[in-house]
Structures are given as C-alpha cells and as structure tokens.
Specification:
The complex is a heterodimer of chains A (about 650) and B (about 400). Chain A is α/β, with parallel strands linked by helices. In chain A, the strands form 2 sheets. Chain A has a 7-stranded mixed β-sheet, with helices on both faces. Chain A has a 4-stranded mixed β-sheet with strand order 8-5-6-9, sandwiched between helices. In chain A, a hairpin with a 2-residue loop joins strand 10 and strand 11. Chain A is globular and about 75 Å long. Chain B is of the alpha/beta class and about 400 residues long. Chain B contains 14 helices and 10 strands. In chain B, strand 2, helix 11 and strand 3 form a beta-alpha-beta unit. The longest helix of chain B is centred in the middle third of the chain and has 30 residues. Chain B is globular and about 65 Å long. The chains are: A alpha/beta (about 650), B alpha/beta (about 400). Chain B: Belongs to the eIF-2B alpha/beta/delta subunits family. Chain B: It holds the Pfam family IF-2B. Chain B: Keywords: Cytoplasm, Initiation factor, Protein biosynthesis.
C-alpha cells in the first residue's frame, strides 16, 4: 500500500495552521524559549552576538546531540544537577556533597585539575575532570608534561601550536582535556555551521592559544607541585565551583580566549545541560564506585555473587547499613543530615515506607522540616548553600535506597524553586516560601492529582465488572474504594507475587471496606484473566515512549491481559512522568535483597538455597521494577485526563516544565 | 435537496414517544459525563424516511421552538434585565435551526455558527456574563441532542477555542468581545471550509485504477470522491448497503450521478470482496481521544477485515468531531439506538441489537484526514490535549 501512495508530502505546516490555533497558544512555547534563553544568558554577561544564532530562534535541541560521554557541562551548584531517580544515584553522591573539603577530593586525582580553564567546559565543571580521570594514565601523562612543559614554555612562549598538536595526538582512553575538547566541539557544532570561515578560523586560533596557555601554566603548576607538594592555586582551581573570574592563574591570552569562547558556547551548553540526562552511575566502573564509596556516609557491603547482566546496578547486602546508620544517629557529624531526613532514610532502608507516592511525600516532608530548621551559615548565599544541603540529603537518601523517578522529579522541582528564589527575600521569607511550595507540590501534584485520577478512572468501571489489580498501588486502591462507595457492583481480583506479597495488605483493606475479592498469585494469572474485564495497574513512572516502569510483574500482567484482549489502565500521576526512554528493564533497575528469594516464610523444609552465597555458580536476582512496553497499555489515567500511551511525550513536553516552575 | 444532519432526536421525540419495547436495558452501561444516555430515542431511526424530509424539518423546528424557551427562561431568571426580554426573540435553537436548514451543513457547524451568533447578539456587559451566556447556549444546544458526538464536541471545541486565552487580558470589554466574535467567526469559517480542506488533502491518496470501499453515507467522503472524480481520477467504489438505513444506496446514487463506477455490496459481502479493494474510506461520527473513531455500525468489522488483509483504512473527519471520550471497548459508549426493520415480524422474545454505531480502535486505522492535516491516530490525542489542557 505504501508504494501506491503517490506523494508523501501531506502534512504541510501551512495546513496544520488551519486548525484551532489561537494566538496565545502559538506564542506560548516561544515565550518559554525566550525565558530559558534569557535565563541562560543572564548568568553570562557576554552574550553571543556575531557568530551565534539568537537563542530565540533555535528551539532547545531535545536530545538532538547524542552524548555518549558523561556530560561535562554540569555545574554542581545550580538546581539541575541532581539525581533523577534511581538510575543515576552516583551523580550527587560524587559531585554534590558540600561537606567534603576540596583538599580531600583531589589528592590522588588528576594533575590537570590544577590547570585553570583548559577549556570552557572544564571551567564549568572541574568536578567532572576529577571524576572521570583515570588516575594512572593521566598521572604518567602529567609527569611528561610536568617535566617537559616548563622548559618548553619558558623557551617558546608562543609555542602554542606545538603543544596543541601533542594534545591532539593523545591516546583516546585518556579522558582528560582531550575529551573535553571533543565534547566542546560537539556542543558548539550547531553554531559553527553558521559561522563564516574566517570566524571559524579565529575561533580555532583562540582555542589553540587557550589550550597552549593553559598547558603552560598547568605545567608550571605541576613543576611547583613536584617541588613542594600542595599548591594552593591548584587547589582553588579544583574546588567545586570557582566562578570564572577568580581563575587568576591563567595568563591574559588564555582568559581572553576562554571568555570569547564562552560567549560563543554558553547558551547551547546551558540548554544541553538541561536536556541531556546525567550519566548514570555504572557500578561496574570500579574507579567511580571507589570514589562514591569514599563520600558515602555508610559503607554498604557488596554482595558476593553479583548477577552478570546487572553489574552496573548497585548490589549491596541488604540491611547491612542499618546498624551502622542507627549507631550514627546521635552522632554530631558535619556530614550528618537533618534528623528528619535521617529518619526518612532509615524508614526507606527498613522498608517501612514504600510506594512511589509515600516515599516522595515522606521525603518532601522531611525536606520541609529541614528547611524550617535551616539557617544560612556565615558568608554563604541561601540559594547555593541550601541547594548543596539538599544535595547532601539526597545522596544520603540514595545510600538508603535508590531514588524513584517521582522523587527525582520532586527534587528537581524543589531545586528549581530554590534557584528561583529572589535574592531580596529575607531568610525567613525564603524559608516560608519554600515550605509553602513544598506543601503545594504535595497537594497539587499528589493529593489532588490522585483525586482527579480517581474521578476519571471510576467512569470506566461498570456494574458487573471484574477488575484485576497487581501488587498494591495506592491510586488503584482509592479508585476501587471510590467505585464501591458509588455503589457500583464489581468484583476485584488481587494478584500478588513473592517475595513482597504487598497484595495481601491491599486485600485486607479492600475486604475491610466490604468489596468482594479474589486473591491469586501471579502464577495463576492466565487462568483468571479470561473472566476479567478491566486491569488497573499503578506505575512507578511512565516514560516518554509510553513505557510503564513499575513493580516487577506488571509487564507480565499487562501482557497476559493484552493477549486476552482485556483493557489495561495505568493509573499514574503526571509528576511521575519522565522524558527518558527505556526499552528494557535491564539498563536501569533496582535490585532487591536476593535473600528474600531464597527464604520462604513458614516453610522450613524449603531450605535448598540455604547457603547459596557460598556457591559461586549461583546468582539470585531479585529485580524490583520492570518496563511494560506501551503496546500492552490501553490507556493511561493521569491528572490531565485519560490519554493513550502515545500522548505521554505531549504531556511531558507541555506540562512537566511548567511543573517545575509552578 | 435538503439533507438532514446526523441528529434525529427531536424527530423521534415527536414520533415515538416511547422507546421500542425490546431495547436492551441501558443498565449495564456506565453513564458517561459528557453524554447522557438518558433519551431512548433513536439516533438513526428516521433515516429511512429521508425522502420526506421537508415536513420533518418543519416539525423539528417547531419542536425546537416549543422546547427552546424553557431553557432560556432559566437563564433569564438568573437576574437579567428586561433588555434580555426584548431580545428574547433571539434563541440559540432558532439560530441553530436556521443554519441547519442549509444543505450540506453539518450540525456541529450549525451549532458553531449559532454560538458565534450568540456572542454577536449578546448584550452582556462583562466578560463573565458573556461567558455564562455562551455556556448556557452551548448547554442548550448539547441537550438538544445528547447522543450526537459531533454536536457536543463542536460546542466544546468552540467554547474552548473562543474563550481559551483568558478574557481578562483585555482591559476593554468591547475589544475583548470583538476579539471573541472574530475568533468565533474564524472558527466557523474553518469548520465550513473543513470538508474542502479534507478533500484536497486526501487527493494524494487516491490513485488511478484504485478500488475504494466505502461504508455509510459520509458527506466528507462524498466530497473527497467528488473532487477526485472531477479532477479526472479513474477509480471505482464499492458501497456497502448500510443496513438498516440504506445509506449505501443513497451514496451509490450520488456517486453514479458523478459518473463514478459503483458496485453495491450487502454488508456481509465485505470480506468476500476485500481482496479487490485497495483502500477503505469511512467517515466518522466522532473521533475519540485514543485516535479511534465512532462511526456507523459495521465500521469496526470492515476495519478488522481490512486490517487482516493489510488494506489501509482511511478516515475522513473534520476536526470539530474530536471528542474527549476514551472508550475502552465497544460497550463503553453512550449507546445511540435505532429501531431495526427486518422486513418480517420478529417474535418479541428475540432480542435485537439496536445500537447504531460502533467503536473502531486506533490500531485498525491507517490515517485520519482532517482539516488539521493528515494525522496518524495517535496525533488526535495530542491535538486534544493541546486544546483542552
């Protein structure tokens, strides 16, 4: 049929304009862009003029540039550097805890961090450099430079080309300035297309000069460091967030060049920083894991038999951190989070609080309390210091349990609010504003959203229905109870699975309300499905390709329902949506306690797996989440109404950004 | 020739005051907020008597006038001044019927025009008043025929479109009102032009020598075929019979008049003929949020047959038919019922399926031709979200 279609040009933008386009509607996205661009440019007084397009004209590239390497453009202080759920717990672990003094982080890492502003992106995140540099290789390289460069530099002050060439020749695995360079060129690519040849040439020249200059000084520093150990200058350059102006080490040529480059690069970088998701911590990357561990409050014990396919996920012995954390509760430690946060963390750890909404609300309440007790330290700015504080809390919570996507979104919201606080507010005003923001978020995005979802979903329940639900989702429970209150006649099938058996609690609550229920385990799902008329499922998150990320087993239930032509309704608040795309449940997941699989309560005779940890040929895998492809989902019930899974990106695009800015 | 649009509720109210005895009890249907399933009157029931339309129209208009004042009366009691009473000569329903009498004007468009007229003739002095007035008018129109999806969708869209940006932006009421009038009229114009736009857009999909299967009588599809024929394309059309309304018979007479070769099939001969068919063209009563369509009974099975034979199914529907409904399955709809005439007496113990329309899920549709462009089914929801939220 495709071959027969004469022409494919059908959707003409002009034709699309025919529809219901109100003037206000069309100008809205534009306004957004203007806002964001002005935000971006306000932080740098050097706005791009000659060779960059006006940012107003370029809609921010959404994942346009695939960046396989860790984004070097994250600044630790500003709001968007935070872990977005369980998939990148390391990020804040590594970068953002402010309690670590700069000196403690750079003893073994890279000598290049002493270089002031090798490159623009470097300048923005020195942190990135010390995070990604592999110690050994860069050390040897550094030695080379340390020995050779000073002489070179002193004898040929303008030997920039030489050094630049040597830079280019560097072997790829070294992840220092070379990679920064490639990144940089990637980021500025869209702009370069528009520049004239001469301009490009000038830019290149400037870059070379900058690199050479920085190398010189780096070499110098290295030499000095060799002589007398620590160099205060180097340390300052390495410390987490030095504003560009304070980089006094660089000679004039370098600073001039960098500032010029900054003018060129800044807006797209800013945009990209927002758009590209942070790299996920890969727990099979030993070096980064080491670093993460050093910063952690508690030292979790790693499990012995790690499952091969899931080595990139944290695999720790469950419950091992608990005694350590409990004993530390009353210690007065600088790293110590606020007691409320501590309590919530412990509750996550023990599993007392589970479920996306409950965890999110508990976390927000704890933050609210922490903000209430917060005072600005001397010589600190609230915006920066509080963000750092929140970062440290978050990294503490991550050590207790990886964040869920909903929590990531809530944290993103909170940080956006903090960053947007006006400087003129007094401390108490700012704190009050933040606290009310948090309660508003809880109210609007969770409590009210649930109510709306319940209203919507109830319209899909008819008399005589048999509704199936899996696990224990609080929204689904509310829907069932509300439908029962409305007097609808229906029956509920609660499907449950080992090892958590969360369905039993749900079952008890439903029975207490007087609903008629059937309880089965997931093994019997194909037996029961033929009598079911609707499947209601909760979700931990809905990703922008419509994939539903939810309790493990959900995919199985949805697939069986699909095979039986039973509609599957996913009930999920819009604040849990995420613009990420995930195709399987391997690349990001959470591993539960493998022991939970080996033990069956009440069955002493089932002890075949008693010493499983000693058997190196046996690995137990207890996954927590899985990803349900959107094909198996009939409808997503959210606070914006009932939408098909294909419309999730629209909601993410239109509203998630607004969420953060409410 | 006057052609009635999709709604026959009032005819039914006049003629059959009691619903047919063996209607399926609507108890199992969950009542849906936008459309009340309350009236048991037939939706397509009067199709058979189409030829005797003119007297019907009169009766209908009469009924509307009779029923009309009751509702505006309510609105006036809301504390409006006598000015309104002078103006009582203007009623939405009158305006609506005026537009509806125009041949080839869909009833949703008539509603849109009527609502635009409401703004024009309104003597409200504040935005709030105007909005309330508009709301009442649209409610009146919607209650005029509760089973028509396009009517309620058209009213909703108009309300949404016209009052979308907060009226408070304008300080001057007159400027705001002018703005609303302008927008309302533009919306009406777009809706009027919609059929032409769709016909233009779909020309690329009709190629020489193709065979098109058509189900039901849709004015949009007819327009598409008319334009294709007039631009010299050579194709033939299979029309289903369209029991019990014989819509296919009507369509085939129209098409023959245009010089298009037509073959008439009984509804059950679709699968038998499907391998000769290159594409299926249907209209829609409503396009729902999932991207599926609600259309005359039989569309679903044709779409299933076409899908299993890998034939494309194209839907031609104006964008004012986009409704914020999301049926999960066939029974998840407010039923529109009609009486079915089997020609022979049926024992009363036999239950008769009287539903007039079915729901075709989006996975069985290939493309939707709308005045917003040629859309895949999933875009419908995107458009709706952008419009309503």
């Amino acid at each position: 049929m495709d071959a027969r279609r004469v022409s494919r040009m059908v959707i003409d933008p002009k034709v699309r304009q025919v529809g219901f386009v109100t003037p206000g509607a069309s100008s809205e996205p534009m306004k957004h862009i203007i806002e964001s661009s002005s935000m971006a440019s306000s932080s740098s007084e050097l706005t791009p003029s000659g060779n960059s397009l006006s940012p107003v004209m370029i809609p921010p590239p959404r994942h346009a540039i695939p960046v396989p390497v860790p984004s070097p453009l994250r600044r630790p202080s500003i709001g968007d550097n935070m872990p977005l759920g369980s998939y990148n717990p390391s990020d804040s672990l590594l970068g953002a805890s402010p309690t670590i003094s700069p000196s403690s982080r750079n003893d073994d890492d890279n000598p290049y961090s002493g270089i002031p502003s090798v490159d623009l992106s470097d300048e923005f995140s020195p942190r990135w450099i010390d995070r990604t540099n592999s110690g050994t290789i860069s050390n040897t390289k550094a030695d080379d430079f340390g020995h050779k460069l000073p002489q070179l530099a002193s004898s040929f002050p303008f030997s920039s080309n030489l050094t630049a060439v040597s830079m280019v020749k560097m072997p790829l695995p070294r992840r220092g300035a070379g990679e920064v360079e490639t990144n940089h060129s990637m980021s500025s690519k869209p702009l370069k297309e528009k520049t004239s040849k001469a301009e490009r040439r000038a830019l290149q020249e400037a870059q070379r000069a900058a690199k050479a200059a920085s190398k010189e000084t780096g070499g110098d520093k290295q030499a000095v460091a060799f002589g007398e150990g620590a160099n205060p200058n180097a340390k300052q350059a390495k410390s987490a967030k030095p504003p560009p102006q304070k980089k006094d080490g660089a000679p004039g040529a370098s600073s001039g060049a960098t500032s010029e480059k900054k003018g060129v690069d800044r807006p797209p970088e800013k945009e990209r920083k927002k758009d590209v998701p942070a790299p996920r911590m890969q727990f099979d990357d030993t070096q980064r894991v080491e670093k993460a561990k050093r910063r952690a409050l508690v030292k979790p014990t790693e499990t012995m038999n790690r499952v091969e396919l899931f080595r990139h996920l944290p695999q720790y012995v469950h419950g091992a951190q608990l005694p350590a954390l409990e004993s530390k509760f009353f210690e007065v430690d600088q790293m110590h989070p606020h007691p409320a946060v501590y309590r919530v963390g412990l509750q996550y750890l023990t599993g007392d609080i589970s479920g996306g909404n409950a965890r999110c609300v508990a976390m927000l309440m704890a933050f609210q309390e922490a903000i209430k007790d917060y005072t600005i330290p001397l010589e600190k700015v609230l915006i920066r210091d509080l963000t750092a504080k929140i970062n440290s809390y978050v990294s503490f919570l991550i050590t207790c349990r990886p964040l869920s996507i909903s929590m990531g979104n809530a944290i993103k919201f909170l940080k956006a609010r903090i960053a947007k606080l006006s400087v003129t507010l007094s401390e108490s005003e700012a704190k009050a504003a933040l606290q009310s923001d948090i309660s508003r978020f809880i109210n609007e995005k969770i409590v009210l959203a649930d109510k709306v979802i319940v209203r919507h979903a109830v319209t899909k329940i008819r008399d005589g229905d048999v509704l199936l639900t899996y696990g224990s989702s609080c929204v689904v429970e509310m829907i069932l109870c509300y439908a029962h209150e409305l007097g609808k006649q229906f029956r509920v099938v609660v499907v449950d699975s080992r090892p958590k058996l969360e369905g039993q609690a749900l079952l008890r609550r439903l029975l207490a309300k007087g609903l008629s229920c059937t309880y089965i385990h997931i093994n019997a799902i194909s037996y029961i499905m033929h009598e079911v008329t609707r499947v209601f499922l909760g979700a931990s998150s809905v990703l922008s390709n419509g994939t539903v990320y939810s309790r493990v087993g959900t995919a199985c239930v949805a697939m069986v329902a699909h095979a039986f032509h039973v509609p599957v309704l996913i009930c999920c608040e819009a604040y849990k949506f995420h613009e990420r795309v995930q195709l399987d449940s391997i690349c990001s997941n959470e591993l539960g306690d493998p022991d939970a699989l080996s033990k069956v309560h009440g069955r002493k005779d089932l002890n075949h797996l008693e010493n499983w940890a000693n058997n190196e040929k046996l690995q137990l895998l207890n996954l927590t989440y899985d990803a349900t492809p959107s094909d198996y989902v009939s409808m997503i019930v959210t606070d914006y109404g009932m939408v098909p899974p294909t419309s999730v990106p629209v909601i993410v695009r239109e509203y998630l950004r607004e969420h953060l800015l409410i | 020739m006057l052609r009635p649009s999709a709604s026959f509720i009032l005819d039914q109210r006049e003629s059959l005051s009691s619903p047919p005895p063996n209607l399926a009890p609507p108890a199992t249907m969950a009542p849906k907020p936008p459309i009340q399933a309350g009236s048991g009157a037939g939706y397509y029931a009067a199709r058979a008597e189409h030829h005797a339309v003119s007297s019907h129209w009169l009766a209908q208009a009469q009924a509307a006038v009779d029923g009309g004042p009751a509702k505006p009366g309510l609105s006036e009691s809301h504390g409006d001044r006598h000015r309104d009473r002078e103006n009582a000569s203007f009623s939405v329903i009158d305006e609506f019927n005026f537009w509806r009498k125009k041949p080839d004007l869909a009833e949703a468009v008539a509603a849109i025009m009527a609502l635009a007229a409401v703004i024009r003739t309104s003597e409200a002095t504040t935005m709030m008043e105007l909005e309330i007035e508009l709301k009442k008018a649209s409610d009146t129109l919607k209650s005029w025929d509760t089973t028509s999806i396009s009517l309620s969708a058209g009213c909703d869209l108009f309300m949404r479109h016209v009052t979308r940006t907060s009226a408070l932006e304008y300080e001057d009421f007159d400027a705001a009102k002018a703005r609303l009038i302008e927008r309302g009229e533009r919306f009406g114009e777009i809706s009027l032009r919609a059929r032409k736009t769709i016909a233009m857009l779909s020309q690329d999909f009709i190629f020489d020598g193709c065979t098109i299967l058509v189900h039901g009588f849709s004015r949009v599809v007819l327009e598409v075929l008319r334009l294709a024929a007039s631009s010299g394309k050579l194709f033939r059309v299979f029309c289903t019979e369209g029991r019990p309304d014989k819509t296919g018979l009507r369509l085939s007479t129209e098409l023959v008049g245009l010089g298009i070769p037509v073959k008439l099939l009984i509804d059950s001969a679709v699968a038998y003929n499907i391998d000769e068919v290159d594409m299926v063209f249907v209209g829609a009563d409503g396009v729902v949020e999932s991207g599926g369509i609600i259309n005359m009974m039989g569309t679903y099975q044709i779409a299933l047959v076409a899908h299993s034979m890998n034939k494309p199914v194209y839907v031609a529907a104006e964008s004012y038919k986009f409704a914020r409904l999301y049926p999960l399955d066939q029974k998840d709809l407010a039923p529109a019922l009609r009486s079915v005439d089997f020609g022979v007496p049926v024992p009363t113990a036999v239950e008769v399926e009287t539903s007039a329309r079915d729901y075709t899920p989006p996975q069985y549709l290939t493309l939707l031709f709308t005045d917003l462009g040629v859309l895949t089914p999933s875009v419908v929801s995107d458009e709706l979200i952008q419009l309503y939220l």
